[in-house]
Amino acid sequence: MGKLTIDGTLDVSQFWPTGESDADTTKLIVDVTLASHPVHYQPFPNSPALPTTVYDAAYVKLFGARQPVIKNGKLTVRLQGIDAPELHVQPGSLSKTKWKGKALGSLKGLKRPNGRSLVSKYRQPQAETATVRLATFLAQRAGNAPLPVRFVSDLDHEQGPGAAIDKYGRFVGNIMVDPGTPSEVDINLWILEQGLALVALYNSMHRSEVDACVSAYARGANAPRGIARFVSKSITTFDPDLLYRKKGSPIAGEAQARFIHPKLYRRQCTWWAYKAAKKFTSGFDTFLALSKDDTFFETAEFLNSGPLSAIQIPLKEMVTGGKVVWSADEVVFKEGSSSLYGPDGAKLDSW
User: 142-157 burial string, b = 16+ CB within 10 Å, else e?
Assistant: First the structure.
């Protein structure tokens, strides 16, 4: 088991409402100074952690274009193990996806009767509340200075440096605040313990990481100031008028509004848009069956049998008759495949 660490700083102004980052921080930006060798890799538990420049000019291919994983001294982090309500999500493009033998086509340029584009930024209830609570906590830790952080990711050494990167070029792992000090905090686990997100398990996670996240989520699922207690066991009606509000807007009082699992909401958003465009006329349950690659494992079986033996279950099985029949801690989602390339265009398969 290897360990990748990257030291940097976090500008807390990137969070909504002054910025656009949300509580699961899929676009959390960490500033690094490459000249100071902030990236270290420890190939085995008892080996030294040595500086590495393997990511300096590395990239993924995103929609055919090069996407550097570190650009202008900044890297994007996806916090492992959590999924918070969506602050700003747009319908996905299914232009080549077929339904009843016909491609669904593009949503580009299509509008609602009120003149708004179908491809708008939509928002879930509780997204603003969760984001503001996280931002407030981090601002209190930072004071007037950039907040010292350390990105940490446990990796299988044999899989190479690409194991830390997802298909969008984001580093996937945990963020430690005030690393190496008595007040060090693992933000991933803190978010779950505070009930500010649902646990989101993936088959790229090791058992120790799954266990830590599930335990933290159990402690925070009913936290009195958390939002996880408002997750709905039924598919709520999509609200197309609940839109992302640009930075600077006052905080909305979200009271006890219910929300569905963000992974389901992202797909509900796309389903609603194609249904509004009259390109898809069936229900959400049917829509979930369109993608054959959307699968998950049952958590207990995944842990007991391992990722190679556990049975993959279609995502559509999460929803039956409008009811969500699997809770967040009962499912392990399948991670999308990704490849990391070096400046010479060759795959980076080894350290």
Answer: beeeebbbbbbbbbeb
**CA distances (Å), 157 to each of 106, 211, 343, in order?**
41, 21, 21
Alpha-carbon distance of 192 to 206, in angstroms, equals: 18
Average pLDDT over residues 322-338: 95
Q: Length of the chain, please?
A: 351
- 25 pLDDT higher than 70: no
Cα–Cα distance, 77 to 14 (Å, whole number): 13
Reported as a single tens digit per residue, the pLDDT across 253-301 is 788 999 999 999 999 999 999 999 999 999 999 999 998 889 999 999 9
CA atoms within 13 A on the CB side of 85: 29
φ/ψ of residue 101, rounded to 5: 80, 5
Average pLDDT over residues 314-335: 96
Q: Specify the residue for token string 């979930």.
A: 288
Query: For 255, left (φ over 0), alpha (ψ -120 to 50), or beta?
Result: left
The span from the CA of 154 to the CA of 163, in Å, is 9
CA dist 122 and 76 (Å) reads 22
Query: CA-CA distance, 319 to 124, in Å (whole number)?
Result: 18
Q: Could you write out the DSSP letters of every residue in 252-279? A: P--TT--B--HHHHHHHHHHHHHHHTTS
Residue type, 280: F
What token pair was written down for 120? 């708008």
With tokens 């055919």, the residue in question is 64
* Pick from 273, 272, 334, 279: nearest CA to 308: 334
- 10 pLDDT exceeds 90? yes
* pTM for the structure as a whole: 0.94
